[in-house]
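The instructor's notes for this session suggest beginning with a concrete chain rather than abstract definitions. Hand out the sequence below and ask the class to guess, before any prediction is shown, which regions might be ordered.
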Amino acid sequence: MPSSNKRGSVRPQPVSMKTGLILLSCLVLSTLAFAQYRNIILLLGCEVLERDFGGGSGGRPLPDARCDGGFVAVAFHVQTGEYFNQAWLDCAPMRSDGSLGEERRTTSPTGPRGGRDVHDAQCPSGTVLRGLRGRTGASIDEAVGECSSLRDVGERGDRGERRDRDDSDDRRGRNRQAELTNPVSTARPGGRPAEADCPSSAVVVGFRSRGGEWMDHLSILCSQVQRTY
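After discussion, reveal the predicted structure:
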């Protein structure tokens, strides 16, 4: 009689080709996903958002001071007389890894011609302009830049679904942690406290103003820093 297997013993079955391919596919996808997670790419969005800094209601709209595509603001300059007259920006290229290129490009100015003294406000090395704080009344009395690391800004992109709800809390935290430029002010600054912040995952890419004999009103222009893989 043919011999039989012992009770309870199970003969191992070979893994089918289909099952092997499925396991291999899962392994490849997991490896790619992990690699993509480590290699986050930051891109600057094309949409521009305006945030009001303040000032008076007079004056006419004037040409914007805008960074070139793919560039972000790292410094600003103001020409003043009795009041703010013109303002412009220095811009640096944003690299996909969240660092800044060495090149610097200066925007055209926004605001009415005039004034004598030029004041410079530079973000600390490796940081970008995120907003302004200062004082405004019928015009602009004082402006101080708020700066942050570009990589920190990019990390906030994952909280996009909570951005509107958390903007006020995020602004308070950012104001405590922001690095500041030196202040630019008129000879006799007055007015009331003012501030303008980009959304939590955005950076400054321009200025917008209205004016007549001097700059009456100022806004910042922001673009989102978007994360992709």
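Then share the key points. The longest helix spans residues 17-38. The chain has one domain: 41-228.
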